[in-house]
Backbone:
């Protein structure tokens, strides 16, 4: 999927999910767009899915992954599974158990639980970040897992609390990118999430100072060092609120994956809020009345949320130029003769 995105000049939508309802919305959106994609689980999402005490982060991630494996079989698109923003202090409780679970499945002759994981060591000095990442990449490579890393802190706020500082104007340098490749390139396959003015969260028009040319400069440095065909596989974090023109410019400089979280969360919540506002008296038992079941039935309003989620995913597939390009059933003109 990543190779196809690189060759085809598009990026895969990587959609954060924390519930089965969100998984269904994501899968429906991908199928409607005829796009392959990635479902992502944050440690916070694993904690939410794992129980009300919020302590079973790895177990919750396994529950979501198993659900995604089963539900994705209903759709004729390819779906990969990824974990997002695992901080250094979360590795032992979250990332390592998930790698071990994939190793156990593979020993039984089954496929991977997750296809890729992210280690977010961006708050560490780059040397320590890459030292930790190299250890994890060796473990991942043994199980045919891709590792995503972040070099340069991407500001804003995401669900996990990662990269919570406001760091406008922090850009990853070509030298830092080359250090990442020197540290990881000989071990296994990795994805790099650089900082080029992107920030987690949603912002008003004009607030983000995106500079996709930072990605271009990194690719030029990579080719100058390693040859004309060498290139990074970049990940666009904090893509919410970004102008489509900037998104597609970043794709032109090697972005093969873009994360979706804030925009899909809002697209999920907006129709639910509308339903509850419009059915306020029926959704609550007011003045001794009993309300109306369809007004307070979660299956009714959560379905509306899933439909909104699916529509936002479908839009993202078009913005990322991935719509209609699923590899599940190549169209005749795409079949090599």
Residues:
């Amino acid at each position: 999927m990543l190779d196809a995105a690189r060759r085809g000049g598009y990026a895969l939508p990587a959609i954060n999910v924390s519930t089965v309802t969100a998984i269904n919305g994501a899968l429906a959106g991908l199928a409607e767009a005829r796009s392959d994609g990635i479902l992502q689980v944050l440690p916070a999402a694993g904690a939410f899915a794992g129980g009300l005490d919020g302590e079973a982060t790895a177990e919750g991630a396994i529950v979501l992954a198993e659900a995604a494996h089963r539900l994705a079989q209903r759709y004729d698109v390819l779906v990969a599974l990824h974990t997002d923003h695992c901080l250094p202090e979360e590795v032992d409780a979250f990332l390592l158990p998930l790698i071990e679970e994939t190793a156990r499945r593979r020993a039984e002759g089954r496929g991977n639980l997750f296809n890729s994981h992210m280690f977010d060591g961006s708050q560490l000095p780059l040397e320590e970040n890459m030292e930790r990442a190299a250890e994890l990449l060796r473990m991942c490579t043994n199980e045919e897992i891709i590792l995503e890393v972040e070099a340069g802190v991407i500001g804003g706020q995401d669900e996990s609390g990662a990269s919570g500082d406001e760091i406008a104007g922090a850009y990853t340098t070509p030298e830092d990118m080359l250090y990442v490749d020197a540290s990881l390139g000989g071990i296994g396959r990795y994805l790099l999430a650089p900082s080029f003015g992107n920030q987690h969260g949603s912002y008003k028009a004009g607030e983000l100072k995106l500079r996709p040319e930072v990605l271009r400069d990194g690719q030029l440095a990579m080719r100058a060092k390693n040859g004309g065909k060498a290139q990074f596989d970049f990940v666009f974090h904090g893509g919410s609120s970004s102008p489509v023109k900037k998104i597609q410019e970043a794709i032109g400089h090697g972005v093969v994956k873009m994360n979706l979280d804030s925009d899909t969360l809002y697209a999920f919540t907006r129709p639910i809020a509308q339903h509850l506002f419009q059915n306020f008296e029926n959704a609550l038992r007011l003045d001794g009345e009993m309300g109306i079941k369809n007004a307070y039935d979660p299956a009714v309003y959560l379905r509306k949320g899933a439909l909104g989620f699916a529509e936002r995913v479908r839009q993202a597939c078009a913005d990322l130029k991935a719509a209609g390009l699923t590899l599940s059933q190549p169209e005749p003109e795409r079949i090599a003769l």
About this structure: The chain has a mean pLDDT of 92. Strands lie at 12-16, 37-41, 79-86, 116-119, 146-151, 155-156, 190-194, 199-200, 234-236, 255-260. The CA atoms of residues 86 and 119 lie 5 Å apart. Residues 298-319 form the longest helix (22 residues).
